[in-house]
Design a protein that fits this description.
- The protein is an alpha+beta fold.
- It contains 13 helices and seven strands.
- The protein is about 50% helix and about 10% strand.
Length: about 325
């Protein structure tokens, strides 16, 4: 059977569809017999000797898949990428070979630069076959890994523009919508409430409390993503974002603060215990954090008063 098929394949009068059927049959025999090396040699030799074959895209795809199954992913990546660069897309069994290559490359590629290229190609060429919303957010994270902050912010913005951005669940990226919204809003803000260091922020807050200077406290408070919650609430929740004036809580009250920051503070976050704000909840922990915003080196690493936790720590 095998020799007979090879004999048919060598018939110069065999048309393109006939050659496809014969090569597919030969490949199936090799595959069934688990002769993977022979199958790869057969397909690559055919491609080299018949560069005009319109199905070479598919034969190379089979070759790449064999290397995938053999855990030779760098070789598989080479072939998938070679198909995209050098061979026209074709449809086999109703499936685009280029689309299948991109799907595989997203899984096995080890560099952000390559994943950026593949994500963009999927979005631009096959938007109806993928979740564009998810890919915009994954693309943003790959840009961040490469330090391409302008492109990362643009991808976060494109993610937020999608109609299902608020409801989509993305594996490995919890709270995708809230985090992207906070980042974009922070980028669009003046950021003029940040301090050069934690001691500078702490001293300014304490001086304002000593003077009962609610105007300064309102000025120091972050104007984007500021939260005021109980300890068991989610700071990214819709009910966590608060806009209020400290004036309403300083008038007629005796406000006090701890001499030093709470012991749970660390190089990136700090807590200042204060009391006297309200007859209902007297204890407030003022939450300070280091700004993580590499897109702007002048702001990155500064400190902001980012929120309030009501009540004693849990």
């Amino acid at each position: 059977m095998f020799l007979q098929l090879k004999g048919i394949l060598n018939n110069p009068e065999l048309d393109s569809q006939g050659r496809y059927s014969v090569i597919k049959s030969i490949s199936n025999i090799y595959f069934t017999q688990k002769k993977y090396n022979q199958l790869v040699l057969f397909l690559t030799d055919w491609i080299e000797r018949h560069p005009e074959d319109e199905y070479n895209t598919y034969w190379l795809y089979i070759t790449a898949c064999i290397y995938m199954e053999s855990d030779a992913t760098p070789i598989a990546e080479y072939y998938f990428d070679r198909i995209l660069k050098n061979y026209s897309d074709i449809m086999v069994n109703g499936q685009s070979i280029h689309f299948q290559c991109l799907r595989q490359l997203i899984k096995i590629s080890t560099t952000s630069a390559n994943r950026i290229k593949y994500f963009n190609e999927l979005i631009n060429r096959f938007p109806s076959k993928i979740s564009v919303t998810e890919l915009y957010e994954r693309l943003a994270f790959e840009y961040e890994k490469e330090g391409e902050w302008a492109q990362a912010l643009h991808s976060h913005f494109q993610f937020l523009e999608q109609p299902d951005a608020q409801t989509i669940q993305i594996s490995g990226i919890p709270d995708a919508y809230a985090n992207a919204l906070q980042l974009v809003n922070f980028n669009d803000s003046p950021k003029d409430w940040t301090f050069e260091s934690l001691p500078a922020l702490e001293n300014a807050i304490k001086k304002a409390i000593n003077r009962y200077d609610w105007k300064s406290l309102d000025k120091y408070r972050a104007k984007v993503n500021f939260f005021a919650i109980n300890w068991n609430q989610d700071r990214s929740g819709s009910n966590a974002q608060e806009v209020f004036s400290m004036k309403n809580f300083m008038r007629g009250n005796r406000i006090r603060y701890s001499a030093s920051l709470d012991d749970s503070s660390n190089p990136n976050e700090a807590y200042l215990r204060t009391t006297g704000w309200s007859q209902y909840i007297s204890v407030w922990y003022l939450y300070f954090r280091k700004v993580n915003f590499p897109a702007d080196p002048e702001i990155h690493g500064r400190w902001e008063w980012a929120g309030i936790y009501f009540g004693e720590k849990l």
